[in-house]
């Protein structure tokens, strides 16, 4: 049963953990794009700009949405574009494995915070890979990967 004491846990989950999982996911895309010689930027949230740190922009409602824009991959192949879109899920998976490893070896405690981190990470991975077109210009990573496999040509620009 949800009680008043659970509000603190809910606060941490929605305003700290979910944005952290989202940032890790976007960093996966970002790092893959850099690996293949592209330019990339991360935008966390919506609304007015709170601050910008290099190529990471954090907006007022940082917990609502996030995305990574990339362009101009020097290694411009079907595989590199697939890896850029899969990079978010890959880094999410690595983060879950590391947290679990650190708990097993005793570097991190078995705490609800890390349990929730794992739960939100799996949630994020699932919905990122679920192939859905959100709008004309925005699709899930899974849908983007399918589009790349079906329609790739070196002149296409994938966002």
TrEMBL record:
The keyword Transmembrane applies. The chain crosses the membrane at residues 12-36, 82-107, 113-134. Keywords: Membrane, Transmembrane, Transmembrane helix. This is Peptidase M50 domain-containing protein.
């Amino acid at each position: 049963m949800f009680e008043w004491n659970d509000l603190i846990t809910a606060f941490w989950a929605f305003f700290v953990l979910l944005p952290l999982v989202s940032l890790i996911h976007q960093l996966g895309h970002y790092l893959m794009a850099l690996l293949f010689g592209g330019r990339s930027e991360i935008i966390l949230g919506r609304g007015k700009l709170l601050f910008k740190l290099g190529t990471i922009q954090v907006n007022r409602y940082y917990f609502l949405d996030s995305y990574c824009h990339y362009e101009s991959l020097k290694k411009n192949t079907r595989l590199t574009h697939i890896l850029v879109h899969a990079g978010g899920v890959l880094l999410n998976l690595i983060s879950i494995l590391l947290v679990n490893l650190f708990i097993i070896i005793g570097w991190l405690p078995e705490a609800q915070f890390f349990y929730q981190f794992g739960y939100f990470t799996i949630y994020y991975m699932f919905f990122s890979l679920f192939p859905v077109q959100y709008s004309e210009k925005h699709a899930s990573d899974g849908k983007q990967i399918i589009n790349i496999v079906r329609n790739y040509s070196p002149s296409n620009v994938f966002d």
